């Protein structure tokens, strides 16, 4: 495993110069007129202590994850980089617990770049189904094919080359692969690292803005341990994922809490409140605790401080950081979807699925015949439009009364709140006639009839599996066991006329804060 060169620790911040794109460990660029040194690491000894404490905690507390095992045990640099790459792509916007099974199955099926490059996109989509953000799998395979066909099967050897040469590999993924697989001393910045850095240095400006993002990358490059860059970066991400969590951080368990400016502020506020309650605070200092703050904050000239309109909230404690601009709410869309069912040659129910276009949302995945809900259409008009749409697939005239309304299924994509208005239609007659009208339409989308088991194994989205579940329940209610149902279903608590499948969650309790500290116990 290669290691990046060791460079001197951080010197006086005013005398530092900007490094190249990836930066050097222990080195920060000069502080601009709009940024205060309060938000940086300005002492070499603090950086060394931060590294030592974090890595000692990581060695003791890190989770046992399959991609870490592969990275540690694989001697071939190329295969190690591929294993890390797959994990990093899967972990984007997806929880670790969800990824583990997908990762294990993926590496069993395609253990090398060459194996993935030979796979079909259909196979990739089938394995990826349910993981979300489906374009990730497609881009991963396209990049693997490029490595095999254009780079002689050899992965690029630095973060800069990875980001430049591989489609779908951005700055974070390139840094993660290079530091973990090659030992390149480069930092990484993801959501977990942003949270840790913003709290440790009280960075309250919008972390998604380019200026703040650049400063966070500078901090990450300065902090990374040149002797163990991969472990250090994983430790930063592990800390954010398991201890420095978004809403209920476990500050007492944090290995770098002595370096955390946000935590220091919370402790001083609690100490001051305690003295006030015990009558030990002098009247002249009873208005506020003595808390170190950014010198430029008072004038509003620091680009890393929170805006004046968003002051520190004692109820949140360290969870005041990071702050992001409010996200746009997902736009609402409605789609009519019909589950077409027929009896196959052996009498087993079969269902029609159609392949989506190769670009756009859920590209290349399979779904039940669907039609976007036209603006301004009434339910009756939309039903008639759907009926016309499915008749082409049915290969026979379909009376409107046969189209059975099942209910509604909700699913939230990253930018769309989609509601599927679900219908079912049981076809009769010759199985060969169904969808016969489409068989000659070479320009139309691909389609196929599948059994229930085949549907579950196909490259279908989580949303379509929700549609299936709703239709299965509704069909069993309407026809009873033995008529297309494989088992007896219990009573459905959802209304038969308005079935909604939605995930609900509850907010965890907040961390201990000044507000909670001052509140008298119940009953007093």
TrEMBL record:
InterPro entries: DNA_glycosylase (IPR011257), Endonuclease-III-like_CS2 (IPR004036), Endonuclease3_FeS-loop_motif (IPR003651), HhH-GPD_domain (IPR003265), HhH_base_excis_C (IPR023170), HhH_motif (IPR000445), MIG/MutY (IPR044298), MutY_C (IPR029119). Its cofactor is [4Fe-4S] cluster. GO terms for molecular function: 4 iron, 4 sulfur cluster binding; 8-oxo-7,8-dihydroguanine DNA N-glycosylase activity; adenine/guanine mispair binding; metal ion binding; oxidized purine DNA binding; purine-specific mismatch base pair DNA N-glycosylase activity. The keyword Lyase does not apply. Its main location: mitochondrion. The keyword Nuclease does not apply. This is Adenine DNA glycosylase. It comes from Chelydra serpentina (Snapping turtle).
């Amino acid at each position: 495993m290669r290691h990046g060169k060791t460079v001197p620790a951080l010197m006086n911040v005013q005398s530092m110069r900007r490094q190249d794109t990836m930066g050097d460990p222990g080195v920060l660029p000069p502080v601009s007129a709009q940024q205060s040194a309060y938000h940086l690491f300005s002492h070499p000894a603090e950086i060394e202590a931060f590294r030592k404490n974090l890595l000692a905690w990581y060695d003791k507390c890190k989770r046992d994850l399959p991609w870490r095992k592969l990275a540690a045990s694989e001697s071939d640099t190329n295969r190690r980089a591929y294993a890390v790459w797959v994990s990093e792509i899967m972990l984007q916007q997806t929880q670790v617990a969800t990824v583990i099974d997908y990762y294990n199955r993926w590496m069993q099926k395609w253990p090398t770049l060459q194996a993935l490059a030979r796979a079909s996109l259909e196979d990739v989509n089938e394995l990826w189904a349910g993981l979300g953000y489906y374009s990730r799998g497609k881009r991963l395979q396209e990049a693997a094919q490029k490595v095999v066909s254009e780079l002689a099967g050899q992965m690029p050897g630095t973060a800069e080359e990875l980001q430049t040469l591989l489609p779908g590999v951005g700055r974070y993924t390139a840094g993660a692969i290079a530091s973990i697989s090659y030992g390149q001393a480069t930092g990484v910045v993801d959501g977990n690292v942003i949270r840790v850095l913003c709290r440790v240095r009280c960075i309250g400006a919008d972390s998604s803005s380019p200026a703040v993002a650049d400063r966070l990358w500078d901090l990450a490059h300065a902090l990374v341990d040149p002797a163990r860059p991969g472990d250090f970066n994983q430790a930063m991400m592990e800390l954010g994922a398991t201890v420095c969590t978004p809403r209920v951080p476990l500050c007492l368990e944090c290995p770098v809490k002595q370096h955390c400016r946000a935590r220091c502020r919370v402790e001083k506020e609690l100490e001051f409140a305690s003295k006030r309650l015990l009558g030990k605070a002098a009247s002249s200092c009873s208005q506020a605790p003595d808390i170190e703050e950014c010198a430029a904050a008072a004038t509003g000239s620091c680009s890393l401080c929170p805006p004046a309109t968003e002051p520190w909230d004692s109820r949140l404690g360290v969870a005041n950081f990071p702050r992001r601009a409010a996200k746009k709410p997902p736009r609402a869309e409605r789609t009519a979807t019909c589950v077409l069912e027929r009896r196959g040659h052996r009498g087993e129910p079969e269902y029609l699925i159609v392949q989506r276009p190769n670009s756009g949302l859920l590209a290349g995945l399979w779904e039940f015949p669907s039609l976007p809900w036209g603006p301004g259409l009434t339910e009756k008009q939309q039903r008639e439009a759907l009926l016309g749409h499915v008749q082409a697939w049915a290969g026979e005239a379909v009376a409107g009364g046969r189209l059975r309304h099942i209910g509604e299924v909700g699913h939230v994509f990253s930018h769309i709140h989609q509601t599927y208005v679900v219908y079912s239609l049981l076809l009769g007659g010759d199985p060969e006639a169904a969808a016969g009208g489409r068989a000659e339409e070479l320009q139309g989308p691909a389609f196929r009839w599948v059994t229930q088991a085949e549907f579950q194994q196909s490259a279908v989205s989580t949303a379509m599996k929700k549609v299936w579940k709703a239709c299965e329940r509704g069909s069993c209610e309407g026809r009873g066991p033995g008529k297309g149902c494989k088992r007896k279903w219990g009573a459905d608590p959802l209304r038969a006329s308005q079935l909604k499948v939605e995930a609900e969650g509850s907010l965890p309790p907040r961390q201990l804060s000044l507000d909670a500290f001052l509140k008298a116990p119940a009953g007093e």
